[in-house]
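Quick one, tokens below:
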């Protein structure tokens, strides 16, 4: 949520003539419901939330996004016990430290050991349509570990599952891991680094390694709000684009950490937030590595709502059964155009260019689709214009 806090604290909302109050919410479902019901005008959401709301999974509503909040920022952490069993399966580099990225192949024998002793292997994730759910599923399935299907009867998504995934609120994840209720989790920062600081777990992989420069959160308004307040939608987007640029301007992250550590925002210790926000990430205690792209808010056109990013989430919803029936490729393209609104982003960015606040080179020349990429942990190719081919390319998952 950093761009929202920065837009508020640095006066970017005010510059656009907006009076904005920022309120923390208790959970992702509450955020979704309050935006749909009009109690909140807009909110940062999990990228999958507005997509699911328009695609038939969960509560249905017409929601739109004109702004992508960030790239990367998540990790997968396991308990100390699981890590001690995984470590012998991981090759070491010349420095004696584990070679990254760590694939779930190293976890596979641990899961078998749990099963042999009659114990289920349980992991937490943030929400059924969160990036975290799809990322941990992708990581597991890439190693041949089945993360389970969703059906109308099994909304937990645990049909055929070798790992039982369940929703755990992010701030509760370290404590839930410590008690042994779950054996690992996928979450955003600062909750992976919190496990390191507390000495209760080890982050093993980041989502940068699962899908390089993947989209993470989005800012969401209702379609009705945008239709009734088109200039306000553009003004909000302008302020958020400026906030993203400020966050990625060298030298500003230390101040950003101080702002985010405030109780009304993230409320975590500065030292925990700084671990990832200032370009490093700590895996095993003492194994701190340079990760300049762990949190990206503006570079690589991070704020632009690419159709291909949204379609990726639709493919994963179909892959795991949240979209229960096969759809033609044209459905994916038309559905995402109802939800992702790059036209609003382009109007906002055009005004910022005219005002001299961003350079014209920061506006992508695009049809809304990123080039085909194989920047995934399994090397699989993703083409947003061929969603059916992509879905069918996986060994584990629904077809078509």
């Amino acid at each position: 949520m950093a761009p929202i806090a920065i837009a508020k604290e640095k006066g970017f909302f005010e510059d656009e003539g907006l009076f904005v109050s920022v309120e923390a919410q208790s959970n992702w479902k509450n955020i979704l419901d309050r935006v749909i019901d009009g109690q909140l005008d807009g909110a940062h959401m999990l990228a999958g939330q507005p997509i699911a709301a328009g695609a038939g999974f969960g509560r249905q509503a017409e929601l739109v996004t004109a702004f992508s909040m960030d790239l990367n920022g998540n990790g997968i952490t396991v308990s100390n016990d699981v890590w001690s069993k995984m470590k012998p399966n991981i090759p070491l580099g010349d420095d004696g430290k584990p070679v990254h990225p760590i694939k779930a192949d190293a976890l596979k024998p641990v899961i078998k050991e749990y099963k042999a002793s009659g114990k289920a292997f349980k992991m937490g994730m943030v929400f059924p349509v969160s990036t975290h759910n799809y990322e941990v599923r992708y990581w597991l399935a890439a190693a041949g570990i089945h993360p389970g299907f969703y059906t109308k009867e099994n909304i937990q998504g645990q049909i055929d599952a070798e790992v039982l995934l369940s929703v755990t609120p992010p701030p509760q994840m370290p404590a839930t891991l410590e008690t042994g209720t779950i054996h690992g989790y996928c979450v955003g920062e600062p909750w992976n680094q919190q496990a390191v600081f507390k000495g209760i777990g080890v982050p093993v992989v980041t989502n940068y390694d699962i899908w390089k420069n993947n989209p993470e959160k989005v800012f969401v308004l209702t379609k009705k709000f945008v239709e009734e307040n088109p200039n306000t939608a553009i003004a909000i987007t302008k302020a958020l684009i400026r906030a993203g640029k400020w966050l990625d301007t060298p030298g500003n992250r230390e101040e950003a950490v101080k702002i985010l550590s405030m109780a009304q925002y993230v409320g975590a210790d500065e030292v925990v937030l700084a671990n990832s926000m200032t370009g490093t990430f700590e895996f095993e205690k003492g194994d701190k590595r340079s990760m300049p792209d762990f949190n990206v808010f503006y570079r690589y056109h991070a704020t632009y709502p690419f159709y291909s990013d949204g379609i990726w989430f639709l493919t994963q919803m179909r892959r795991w059964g949240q979209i229960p029936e096969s759809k033609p490729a044209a459905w994916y393209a038309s559905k995402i155009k109802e939800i992702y609104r790059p036209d609003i982003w382009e109007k906002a960015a055009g005004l910022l260019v005219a005002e001299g606040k961003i350079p014209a080179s920061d506006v992508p020349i695009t049809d809304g689709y990123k080039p085909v990429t194989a920047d995934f942990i399994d090397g699989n190719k993703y083409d947003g214009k061929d969603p059916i081919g992509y879905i069918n390319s996986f060994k584990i998952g629904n077809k078509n």
